[in-house]
């Protein structure tokens, strides 16, 4: 084969190879089985639904404020990751805490509790049924557990502990374990900005 | 009685009455999670090391700012994590037990006052029939 033929062919192959190398990381898939609308109340006592999150990404976590270990640890970790973003990135990301203990976690209590982590954290509470409905849509499992006689708290909750990453349309894009890798979470957030 | 004999007697008496098991438990790297001022509870984390040659079993816990303290562990079933009180926490001879987030931890209830970051909280554990082993734990936001 003459050089005039194979040289352009080789150059074309090289270009195709380079193009493949620089191909961007695949987008996070949309989880079509989880998520959906909800109607709850924020820490200011105002009605809050799924559409109020639209336009920004959201890092959402479910828990209860009388939980002394995993819930405050995950909140601190999530807010810490959020604070590692630049100021302009932070303006595009909500941090949302949804309680499944509306009896103790009133809007007033949530407001006082969450401002310790950051005043911008959105706290959501509501009726037992509305919270249960939202939890079901998002695949959150929790159960109120009666404590043993003589225990300090009358009841606790056993629960799943994932952090949800929602996109600007409120669609679930990824679930992180509560002890997530901060760098991985930040990279995934940035991939959607 | 000579002075030397008196000293030997003192050593023997000390060996008989000394709380050897008490001295063998040591608390290290203790800290308390800083929580919002309207929290009713928080958690303490530390390592308990047993330098002795016999297993020690922790049967009680307390903390200076808490009305009560209990040691709990996380048990995962059906996708849910549940805290379960541990009435006894064995510390094997020559080994250690680590209390950490997501695992064994000491729960502090009825906080009064709620300790602020940077403050010290006295946390204690105890085995049966022995004085508590205590340490000052720093309150921090990890």
Summarize the structure.
With 193 residues, chain A is an alpha+beta fold.
Describe the fold and architecture.
The complex is a heterodimer of chains A (193) and B (142). Chain A is of the alpha+beta class and 193 residues long. Chain A has one domain (29-192): Glutaredoxin, CATH 3.40.30.10. Chain A contains six helices and nine strands; from the N terminus they run H-E-E-E-H-H-E-H-E-H-E-E-E-E-H. Chain A has helices at residues 3-21, 70-83, 87-90, 107-115, 128-137, 182-192; strands at 39-42, 47-49, 57-63, 93-99, 122-125, 142-146, 155-159, 163-166, 172-176. In chain A, the strands form two sheets. In chain A, strands 2-1-5-4-3-8-9 form a seven-stranded mixed β-sheet. The N and C termini of chain A lie far apart (50 Å). The mean pLDDT of chain A is 90. Chain B is mostly beta strands and 142 residues long. Chain B has one domain: Immunoglobulin-like (Sandwich), CATH 2.60.40.1890. Helices cover 14% and strands 52% of the residues of chain B. Chain B has two helices and ten strands; from the N terminus they run H-H-E-E-E-E-E-E-E-E-E-E. Chain B has helices spanning 3-17, 20-24; strands spanning 25-33, 42-50, 56-63, 66-77, 80-85, 89-91, 96-99, 105-111, 120-127, 133-140. In chain B, strands 1, 2, 3, 4, 5, 6, 7, 8, 9 and 10 form a ten-stranded mixed β-sheet that branches. The N and C termini of chain B lie far apart (60 Å). At the A-B interface, helix 2, helix 4, strand 6 and strand 7 of A face strand 4, strand 5 and strand 8 of B.
Q: Which pair of protein chains has the largest interface, and what are the residue counts?
A: A-B, 30 and 32 residues
- Report, as a whole number of angstroms, the end-to-end distance of chain B: 60 Å
- Work out the helicity level of chain A: 25-40%
Placed side by side, the strands forming the largest sheet of chain A appear as 2-1-5-4-3-8-9
Low-confidence stretches of chain A: none
Helix and strand element order of chain A: HEEEHHEHEHEEEEH
Average predicted local confidence, pLDDT of chain A: 90
The fourth-level CATH homologous superfamily of chain B is PCu(A)C copper chaperone
The number of distinct structural domains of chain A comes to 1
The CATH homologous superfamily of chain A is called Glutaredoxin
Rg of chain A (CA only): 22 Å
Q: What's the shape of chain B?
A: globular
The class by helix and strand makeup of chain A works out as alpha+beta
Distance between the termini of chain A: 50 Å
Tally the helices of chain A: what do you get? 6
User: What's the shape of chain A?
Assistant: elongated
Q: Which architecture of chain A does the CATH hierarchy give at level 2?
A: 3-Layer(aba) Sandwich
């Amino acid at each position: 084969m003459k050089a005039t033929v194979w040289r352009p062919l080789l150059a074309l192959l090289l270009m195709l190879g380079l193009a493949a190398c620089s191909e961007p990381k695949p987008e996070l898939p949309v989880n079509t089985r989880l998520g959906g609308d909800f109607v709850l109340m924020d820490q200011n006592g105002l009605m809050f639904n799924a559409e109020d999150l639209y336009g920004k990404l959201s890092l959402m976590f479910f828990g209860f404020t009388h939980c002394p270990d995993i819930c405050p640890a995950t909140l601190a970790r999530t807010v810490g990751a959020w604070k590692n973003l630049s100021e302009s990135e932070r303006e595009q990301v909500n941090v949302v805490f949804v309680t499944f203990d509306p009896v103790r976690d009133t809007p007033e209590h949530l407001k006082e509790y969450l401002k310790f982590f950051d005043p911008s954290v959105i706290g959501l509470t509501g009726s037992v049924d509305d919270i249960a409905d939202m939890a079901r849509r998002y695949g959150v499992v929790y159960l109120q557990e009666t404590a043993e006689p003589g225990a300090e708290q009358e009841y606790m909750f056993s629960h799943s502990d994932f952090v949800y990453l929602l996109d600007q349309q409120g669609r679930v894009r990824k679930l992180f374990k509560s002890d997530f890798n901060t760098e991985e979470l930040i990279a995934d957030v940035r991939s959607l900005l | 009685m000579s002075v030397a004999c008196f000293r030997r007697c003192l050593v023997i008496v000390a060996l008989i009455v000394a709380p050897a098991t008490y001295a063998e438990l040591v608390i290290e790297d203790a800290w308390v999670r800083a929580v919002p001022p309207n929290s009713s509870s928080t958690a303490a984390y530390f390592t308990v090391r047993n330098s002795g040659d016999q297993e020690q079993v922790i049967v009680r816990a307390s903390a200076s700012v808490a009305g009560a303290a209990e040691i709990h562990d996380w048990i995962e079933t059906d996708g849910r994590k549940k805290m379960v009180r541990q009435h006894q926490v064995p510390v094997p001879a020559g080994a250690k037990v680590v209390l950490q987030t997501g695992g064994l931890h000491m729960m502090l209830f009825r906080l009064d006052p709620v300790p602020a970051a940077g403050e010290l909280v006295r946390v204690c554990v105890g085995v049966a029939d022995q004085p508590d082993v205590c340490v000052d734990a720093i309150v921090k936001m990890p």
